[in-house]
Amino acid sequence: MTETSAAPPSSDELWRWSAARLARAITAREISSREAVASCLRRIEQVNPSLNALVDVYGDEALAAADLADRMVAAGQALGPLHGVPVSIKVNTDEAGRATTGGVPAHAEAVAAADSASTAALRRAGAVFVGRSNVPAFSFRWVTDNDLHGRTLNPWDTTRTPGGSSGGAASAVASGMVPVAHANDIGGSIRYPSFACGLTGLRPTAGRLPSSGMEGMDTPMSAALFAVEGPIARCVDDVRLAYAAMQVHDPRDAFYAHGAGAPLSRTPRRVGLLRSVGVADPTPEVDKALDQAAGALRDAGYSVEEVELPLLAEAYRLWYLLAIEEVRLIRPMMNALGGESLRTAMDGVYAVAAEFWGPEPTLAEFINGWARRNTLLVRLSQFMEQYPLLLLPVSAEQAFAQDADLEGVDAARRLAAVQWSQMAVPTLGFPALAVPTGVADGLPVGVQLLGRRFDEAGLLDAGAAIEARTGVLTPIDPR
Prior knowledge:
Layout: H1 19-27, H2 33-51, E1 54-57, H3 59-74, E2 86-90, H4 117-124, E3 128-133, H5 167-174, E4 180-185, H6 191-197, E5 200-203, H7 221-226, E6 228-233, H8 236-245, E7 270-273, H9 284-299, E8 303-306, H10 311-328, H11 331-337, H12 340-357, H13 363-386, E9 389-392, H14 409-418, H15 420-428, E10 432-440, E11 443-451, H16 456-470
Parallel strand pairs: 2-3, 2-4, 7-8, 7-9
Antiparallel strand pairs: 1-3, 4-6, 5-6, 5-10, 9-11, 10-11
Helix pairs in contact: 2-3, 5-6, 8-16, 9-16, 10-12, 10-13, 10-15, 12-14
InterPro entries: Amidase, Amidase_CS, Amidase_dom, AS_sf
Organism: Blastococcus carthaginiensis
Family: Belongs to the amidase family.
């Protein structure tokens, strides 16, 4: 990300700065953390009432934390990579002293006693928490709305979803409330909001960043192996910075792969361009974004070739068995507490799942599904020996209309199809990066990069090559 630094900093404009630039300037005592945090808080006051991206803003506490950060700088203490930088935490994730509501009225007073693994990592990195970002009830939809906190709007177009479940995080970053937001992803919840709001979002390899799992209950296997924590930001540099800051061992994660290194490859700069897997073809706008990204990669020295990879279509369908069957166990509770919109959305999801697996999959099908997942994982690993990077859609179309997922089974089927990669990637646990490429018809559009397991560095390098050509789209004023 190119930023001009010749002019002296204006505290009124610090909310526009990248996290990397803020961190450097705070450490160098060119600006204070208080100035940076105060600037973001003023921006929140300006735009959050209309967008409803942050549902719990704590100005005085954030300023006190910023003052402490500044005293640490003055004392010459060791500083973390995000020292003094304003960050938001997703409201489905524990933050000590704050309610982990998950957008559910019954959980409005569920105050966390301790930080989750990801929250603790960001706090240790020096981040200053300024607020909690909104989610759909139980973080289940691609639309961010719930009966407790209300609806979050997309700053590009209020009639379109900001994505879900990290829609509040994405709306906050895109509109300048924070430069970096914490997020998580089990079925597109980092990548889709990034795509819908014109941002960069990293879904790391499963096990790369620590997760505390589902606090207070036994974590289902699909949540343990499919769900990951990760950052959303406006540029690749900030994603890289936050990702590095979050790589801290935490004993609460049974699957954390501490010290795992990136695989070697004979062809590290070979990219497979995957437009479709036969589930839903990309719209002309998304297809053009793929071409633009491919051109940027070629200009940067990558070799890009069109490929076919039907195993991802199978992984997409498998998600509707492995993840959705485990959710079925808590569906009565979700139906009771999540509100009418969640019930309707879940009806659509289970109708889609039934078309693949029948209304009541058997235990044998479920067990065989896990075995098949292992086969697909190996086959994708083997394929990526030849193509260490894949370029593919985040979604086959741009951000859909608010509540399009509530319009019946046909709508649910269509949305599931256009979002095929949102489910296929978590099923196999490979890292993926959403990168914006431009604007079409007033809405952002972008692409997804898929990398080999534990090769986030290669993924981010390729994302930076695309960004160097296409630029950074945000922050923007709400429209």
